Amino acid sequence: MNKVLIANRGEIARRIIRTCKARGVATVAVYSDADKDLPFVREADESVHIGPPPVPHSYLNVEAILAAAKSTGADAIHPGYGLLSENEAFARRVLEEGLLFIGPTPEVIGQMGDKLTARRIMEAAGVPVVPGCEQAIDSPDEAAVIAMSIGYPVMLKASAGGGGIGMHICRDEAELRQAYQSAKGRAKAYFGNDAMYLEKYVERPHHIEVQVVADQHGNVIHLLERECSIQRRHQKVLEESPSPFLDTATRELLCDAAVTAAKAVGYSGVGTVEFIVDEQKNFYFLEMNTRLQVEHPVTEEMTGIDLVSLQLDIADGHPLSIKQEDVKALRHAIELRVYAEDPVTFLPSPGTITLYQPPAFEDVRIDDGVETGTQVTPFYDPMIAKVIVSAATREEAVYQAQKAMDHFLITGIKTNIPFLKEVLQDEQFLAGNYTTWFVTERGAASSNEKR
Prior knowledge:
3 domains; Dna Ligase, domain 1; alpha+beta; 36% helix
């Protein structure tokens, strides 16, 4: 592998460029009109314009990306996360063009991208799944019958979904019937597939995921877990590892289940197995992300292992250079996602950044994609930076995170930094006592105090 085209943008493109440069691998950036002045375009060895700002005309334009790879002589494509990273057809086209796809096979992407298929594979492998239906639901009437058999509350989900889009908690039949058509419509609009299914909704759950790594020679290991329960609108905003909720025995069972899941689907590459964990520490398979996660730096800072470097090795056909017994939680790591959004309503806040000054401290890593003068447009995800801190203990890591956020200056746009600072001061968070209901419960408590 001599030259990698990065089919992505912003901070993840810069992240991949860093490791490629360290390994002496050349890089090619692709960019839209809106991104022509962003740092990742300058930092790549070459860059190719691929179209106007809307993603269907640029970052989802498969033929434009493949043409860029061909014209620059790239021999591999890294899809990053989001966009085309879990697109089975794109991975297949990359291979058909004689290029390396840095990720699993198209078949595995397809199987794990269909949540109903993934459930069936995991059940057959003995990995616990949340009680739910096995086939797509055809009508609100059928949904009501299935929900009655499962028992309310239920979670209505898109089979092709991800990122919390199309998910709806339904606590009774009326709510289910009302949500069905709108959720189906959103699924069709976002994923091109409106197949829906139902799962039992687990109350006050933890969202915990396990990083897995598998080579093309059948070797599969895990890199421990990430606690991802601080979420708004089903989307993560803070992740940490190790999880303050898990005990040693549950952690071992959870990580073993993730390895079983990866083996069951014949996985190769870097991937993540997500679980929902109830208050009694029972865990259930949620989904598998067949790509690099946004929160992968948490694992990197905890273990000292470069996941992008592992991806390049695996795509190049090398066997894993680390064994399971080599993987240790050397430090406690926390990641905070900085979004260009209103810190109260969480609505996007596009505009021009008039001052961008990230914190610069030892053990504070900044993965970002913007600078002073960058225009944050409404065309893309509003995440502009990730702050990753690590320390010997959770208490020290939280202190580092508080200090880092106090020294992060961004003007010209609204950001969620005030919200993140509140989370870091919250008594329940400091105690490590939180679930995916954290943001909702804080909002309710705040409303009660104002009355």
